[in-house]
UniProtKB/TrEMBL annotation:
This is Putative aldouronate transport system permease protein. It is found in: Cell membrane. Keywords: Cell membrane, Membrane, Transmembrane, Transmembrane helix, Transport. One of its GO terms (biological process) is transmembrane transport. Residues 84-288 form the ABC transmembrane type-1 domain. It comes from Anaerosporobacter mobilis DSM 15930.
């Protein structure tokens, strides 16, 4: 009996410790969710609240005076339609082109029979730490004839060193016997890459595609730097940035806003702008969520 009691004691302690761990774990997770979601919900509430009423403060999770005026102010600009088309086009085309070119480079440097793979990898990694600077980069874009061109959004960023390393690491985990058996059957490298390697790399490609799409969608500095004089090539983020600047410049005194009858303020328009720019990425993420963790972890595990 004593032996049985001694044998039952560790189970009770382990069970109690497990319960305490679960309680602490859920408390931490709930706090993390609150800290993460509150700024988003607060921004949404401010964007749906009357701008003049927002100045009083006290807006937390629910708008006090509901209105769509903030969103109408953001969406009323005529150039916003063109900017939306350009932004969607550069996001789709830029993601597809960069993903394919980067994956092709990753396939090359992942092949064991490629003599210069180490040198080429080091060369690309150096670009992550060494940059020529803004002025030489601008002169290069100008000499290439990419100023005032849509392709300035696509060509300079066709290859990403970081994304190449992520994809290459994943490809290193694919058995070489698959490519070797295809070579025995007479398949070339392009056919092996497209028909064998790419289908096996769906998790990491989806993850990298999300990185690229977010970067393309949120980019505005290249539009300001290279296409600021061409209204037909403006982007959504650049237009929203200009909108924020124009609202901020006239927001110095509240009486002016009251006299014009405007119900928007910089704070409310800024909140509406944040929600508008976040919606596409929020809608895209759930479709790629199942690949997200797998794409970052599978390639890093070696047996």
């Amino acid at each position: 009996m004593k032996k049985q009691e001694k044998g039952h004691a560790p189970r009770y302690k382990a069970s109690f410790g497990g319960v305490m761990f679960d309680v602490i774990k859920w408390i931490i997770l709930i706090l993390f969710v609150i800290v993460t979601l509150y700024p988003v919900l607060n921004t949404l509430a401010v964007s749906l609240n009357d701008g003049m009423d927002t100045i009083r403060g006290g807006i937390y999770l629910i708008p006090r005076k509901f209105t769509w005026q903030n969103y109408l102010t953001v969406l009323r600009k005529d150039s916003l339609k063109i900017a939306t088309i350009v932004t969607v086009s550069r996001t789709v085309i830029g993601t597809v082109v960069q993903l394919f070119v980067t994956a092709m480079l990753a396939y090359i440097v992942s092949r064991k029979d490629f003599v210069f793979k180490k040198f080429l990898t080091i060369l690309y990694v150096l670009t992550m730490y060494v940059n020529a600077g803004l002025i030489p980069g601008y002169l290069l874009i100008k000499n290439l004839g990419l100023l005032n061109s849509f392709w300035v959004y696509i060509i300079p960023g066709m290859v990403s060193a970081f994304n190449m390393i992520v994809i290459r690491t994943f490809m290193n985990g694919i058995p070489d016997s698959l490519a070797e058996s295809a070579e025995v059957d007479g398949a070339g490298h392009m056919r092996i890459f497209i028909q064998i390697i790419l289908p096996l790399c769906k998790p990491v490609l989806a993850t990298v595609a999300l990185f690229i799409a977010v970067g393309q969608w949120n980019s505005w500095f290249d539009a300001m730097l290279y296409n600021s004089f061409n209204e037909n090539l403006t982007t959504l983020q650049y237009e929203l940035m200009k909108l924020l600047s124009s609202v901020s410049s006239q927001s110095g005194n509240i009486d002016a806003l009251k006299n014009t009858g405007s119900m928007v303020t910089p704070m409310s328009v800024r909140a509406a702008t944040t929600i508008v720019t976040s919606i596409p990425i929020i809608c895209l993420y759930p479709w790629l969520q199942r690949y997200f963790v797998a794409g970052l972890t599978i390639g890093g595990v070696k047996e």
